[in-house]
């Protein structure tokens, strides 16, 4: 499993320090949860914050847009250094066009499926889609319980897409739920509370990854956290 560290659960007074710590501990990507206080209740990070953290590391940045009008924010997050931008279908009146816009900037494009959202949104966006994020909690906050019914959706999504496509899970992920997701077809996970709630980031990441890809790039890891592949 690819492991993406969600900065939502990092200490907001030490974001840069914790970003570097998870990078050195072997995270494959950093996940920024962008909330606007409208689509979801909370307000979190804006493009300005992401852009400043972009200077600290070259680890891939993924931007999970939980905002009412993602089209208005795509350019700003591209400028801030996004590698992947993920949108919710409910927030895009022209979903295919929004994904195409992200790709026209040369970035990867993803769809996030809320627990109640049908996987059918994928079907006619496959030509502009690089990944699917299956929400295993309702969007809006960290620390919620994993929703088991979403395992069924992961397997449906898996059948719809080419085998190499990234299928990520987001919400309530720990070593146990990650293993269930992997068995259902996920090959990537987002971790917030489980990662930042402990003090051994490398061990937490390794327990989620389980089966690191043989060609995994381990150059970012420190010597203490390096693992055998
Ligand atoms: C929820 C966010 C998640 C969240 C995951 O709206 O999309 O990325 O940070 O946090 P945990 O791992 O605590 O469920
Ligand atoms: Zn997220």
The residue fraction in helices comes out at: 25-40%
Kindly report the average pLDDT value.
93
- Give the helix/strand class: alpha/beta
How far apart, in Å, are the first and last alpha carbons? 13 Å
Q: What is the 3D shape?
A: globular
Portion in beta strands: 15-25%
Record the strand order, biggest sheet.
1-2-3-4-5-6-7-8
Kindly identify the CATH topology.
Answer: TIM Barrel
The tally of beta strands, per DSSP, is: 8
Radius of gyration: 16 Å
What small-molecule ligands were found?
D-xylitol-5-phosphate, zinc ion
The count of helical stretches stands at 8
CATH C-level class is Alpha Beta
CATH architecture: Alpha-Beta Barrel
* Secondary-structure element order, N to C: EHEHEHEHEEHEHEHH
Supply the number of structural domains: 1
Major beta-sheet overview: 8 strands, parallel, barrel
* CATH H-tier superfamily: Aldolase class I
Question: Could you name the ranges where pLDDT drops below 50 across 5 or more consecutive residues?
Answer: 212-229
